[in-house]
């Protein structure tokens, strides 16, 4: 009799355990796969997928960051890369509270990070323009630590690189610096004129006192021709030297909210305002692609809004752009949409 009862109890416990495991699994699954995917027809899936944003399970983000890190290490071993560590160190930012270096480049989140790191260092940054000596030197590694100390710490610190599809960044520079091709009556500022308009007009053999208007093809011609490496569109792999500096966290602007949330939790960064996303104006920059769960390969190709810029370029110019950003594409795993290469001859 006792034997039968014990057997029944074991059976009961097993049923309960199975039920618990099932519920836990279901819970985790629901975190990863959002509700909408369960009641949706395939035809509507893509539009829903592109508009609904959900928080993925941390495992998903962790796996994605590991993939980026692994790709970088592998590709760095295989390519001949320029030694740009000194250049990177001159611009890189530092947060003493977390012994964290951040390489954030113009048109790839640098303003946001100047704000974040000022916050973390206990300063009280305003909402305006932080691209002034004061706010930058508060957080620039070579100012905070000195060059020697910064270089020697780099091997034991937490290193973060902020990246973005190079073609998105390039268009963003055009929209920001050359008014997205609109004609301006006067330059945005004197500095703007001498840094951007004047060299561009000159390089295109245009009248430098004439109208301020250049289109994307002209901008691209200028950018590919000029010897000067402008930080707004110089390849990120030149700016951050990712083959010399080991970046544990490579955050993409394309998946930024998810990536930074993960980082902030992982490192227990409390003094950071995640609402801050500077320079993200619907007019000034290109709309970001949706952020979300699941296969994110689509984020690595180009947003349709951006494609239209490149479709204007003559094939030889397109080929130059691809060549110019070859390392960024390869090391970061961004892709060139096939439509842009189908007519391109190399
Ligand atoms: C350049 O533009 C200015 C202002 O529009 C004009 O006065 C000048 O004649 C132009 N120069 C040439 C060489 O076209
Ligand atoms: C860009 O400007 C150049 C020079 O004015 C012109 O020849 C070309 O057709 C323009 N390209 C586009 C796509 O508008
Ligand atoms: C996170 O940081 C806060 C404040 O800096 C601290 O009080 C807390 O103990 C930290 N938590 C962990 C898990 O380290
Ligand atoms: C963007 O710029 C256009 C004109 O260039 C203007 O009509 C529109 O109101 C602006 N939108 C925002 C959100 O500022």
From TrEMBL:
<dbReference type="Pfam" id="PF03567">
    <property type="entry name" value="Sulfotransfer_2"/>
</dbReference>
<keyword id="KW-1133">Transmembrane helix</keyword>
<dbReference type="GO" id="GO:0000139">
    <property type="term" value="C:Golgi membrane"/>
</dbReference>
<keyword id="KW-0735">Signal-anchor</keyword>
<comment type="similarity">
    <text>Belongs to the sulfotransferase 2 family.</text>
</comment>
<feature type="transmembrane region" description="Helical">
    <location>
        <begin position="9"/>
        <end position="27"/>
    </location>
</feature>
<dbReference type="GO" id="GO:0016051">
    <property type="term" value="P:carbohydrate biosynthetic process"/>
</dbReference>
<keyword id="KW-0808">Transferase</keyword>
<keyword id="KW-0119">Carbohydrate metabolism</keyword>
<keyword id="KW-0333">Golgi apparatus</keyword>
<keyword id="KW-0472">Membrane</keyword>
<dbReference type="InterPro" id="IPR005331">
    <property type="entry name" value="Sulfotransferase"/>
</dbReference>
<dbReference type="InterPro" id="IPR018011">
    <property type="entry name" value="Carb_sulfotrans_8-10"/>
</dbReference>
<protein>
    <recommendedName>
        <fullName>Carbohydrate sulfotransferase</fullName>
        <ecNumber>2.8.2.-</ecNumber>
    </recommendedName>
</protein>
<keyword id="KW-0812">Transmembrane</keyword>
<keyword id="KW-0325">Glycoprotein</keyword>
<dbReference type="GO" id="GO:0008146">
    <property type="term" value="F:sulfotransferase activity"/>
</dbReference>
């Amino acid at each position: 009799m006792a034997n039968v009862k014990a057997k029944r109890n074991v059976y009961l416990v097993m049923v309960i355990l199975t039920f618990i495991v099932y519920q836990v699994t279901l819970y985790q699954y629901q975190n990863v796969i959002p509700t909408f995917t369960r009641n949706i027809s395939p035809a509507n899936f893509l539009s829903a997928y592109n508009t609904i944003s959900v928080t993925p399970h941390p495992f998903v983000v962790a796996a994605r960051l590991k993939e980026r890190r692994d790709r970088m290490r592998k590709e760095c071993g295989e390519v001949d890369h320029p030694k740009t560590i000194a250049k990177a160190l001159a611009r890189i930012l530092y947060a003493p509270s977390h012994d964290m270096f951040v390489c954030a480049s113009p048109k790839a989140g640098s303003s946001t990070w100047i704000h974040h790191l000022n916050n973390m260092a206990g300063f009280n940054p305003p909402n305006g323009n932080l691209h002034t000596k004061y706010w930058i030197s508060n957080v620039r590694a070579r100012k905070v630590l000195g060059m020697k100390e910064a270089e020697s710490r780099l091997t034991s610190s937490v290193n973060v690189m902020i990246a973005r599809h190079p073609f998105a960044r390039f268009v963003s520079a055009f929209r920001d610096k050359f008014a997205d091709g609109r004609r301006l009556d006067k330059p945005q500022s004197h500095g703007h004129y001498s840094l951007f308009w004047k060299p561009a007009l000159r390089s295109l053999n245009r009248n430098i006192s004439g109208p301020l208007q250049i289109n994307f093809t002209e901008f691209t011609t200028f950018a590919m021709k000029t010897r000067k490496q402008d930080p707004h569109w110089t390849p990120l792999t030149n700016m951050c030297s990712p083959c010399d500096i080991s970046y544990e966290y490579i955050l993409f602007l394309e998946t930024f909210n998810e990536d930074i949330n993960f980082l902030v939790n992982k490192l227990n960064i409390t003094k950071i305002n995640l609402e801050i996303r500077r320079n993200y104006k619907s007019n000034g920059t290109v709309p970001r692609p949706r952020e979300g769960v699941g296969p994110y390969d689509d984020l690595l190709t180009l947003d349709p809004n951006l494609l239209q810029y490149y479709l204007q370029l003559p094939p030889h110019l397109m080929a130059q752009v691809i060549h110019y950003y070859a390392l960024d594409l390869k090391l970061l795993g961004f892709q060139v949409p096939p439509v842009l290469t189908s007519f391109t001859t190399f």
